[in-house]
Amino acid sequence: MIIIGIAGGTGSGKTTVVKKIMETIPSGSVAVLGQDSYYKDNSSLNFEERQKINYDHPRAIDFDLLIQHLKDLKQGKAIHEPVYSYITHARTEDYIVIHPKDVVIVEGILVFTNEDLRDMCDIKIFVHADADERLIRRMRRDITERGRDIQEVLTRYESMLKPMHNQFIEPTMKYADIIVPVGGDNLVAIDVLASMIKDKLRADLQA
Q1: I need a labelling partner for 147 at 20 to 30 A (CA). Which of 62, 121, 154, 192 fits?
Q2: What is the pLDDT of residues 160-207, one digit of tens each?
Q3: Average of pLDDT values for 126-137?
């Protein structure tokens, strides 16, 4: 099993890159773990308290659980990936059963901020995009998919998202094996990634 880490700023195109990678690998050979599923369980807090949490800071992520789940998958064990609600800012009682696959992709803005998680990744990819483009994508997503209003999105961007990007996310670009500009629109980079993954898979099978 090989583990691929995909990081980058919010709205940079990480999800598109994941989809493009999955199109190049045989169906049924890939599992995807989303960093957002591993926000710490804050159900003990009331809604107003949960709203104030800085979800763009590394301490918001339950890295211990994410790393343990990756270890379990490598050992051939199925895991129960948590389900997080962006509406209530809390984990739900549901979960998703993830079975071990030849390729496991871990995707999220803060994936490379944790050294232990970085060390588990066989390939590290950083998806880069212009800050204005990322903001536009974030606004569209949060308003249409997460029930936020424009003012809430802009306030969170200015007070949390942008500072956290500059402090924690952008600096992790140095850990990447490959940087993908323009997200999923960079077909050349996607082709290079596909070749890297296939080479890793062949080497893994021959080991």
Answers
A1: 62
A2: 778 888 899 999 999 999 998 876 677 788 888 888 888 888 887 776
A3: 72
Overall number of domains in the chain? 1
Question: What is the spatial distance between Cα 90 and Cα 87, in angstroms, rounded to a whole number?
Answer: 8
Give the separation between CA 42 and CA 50, rounded to whole angstroms.
7
As a whole number of angstroms, the distance between CA 108 and CA 130 comes to 17
Instruction: Please give the model's pTM, rounded to 2 decimal places.
Output: 0.85
Domain that holds residue 149: 2-206
The residue-averaged pLDDT of 27-56 equals 90
Domain CATH for 29: 3.40.50.300
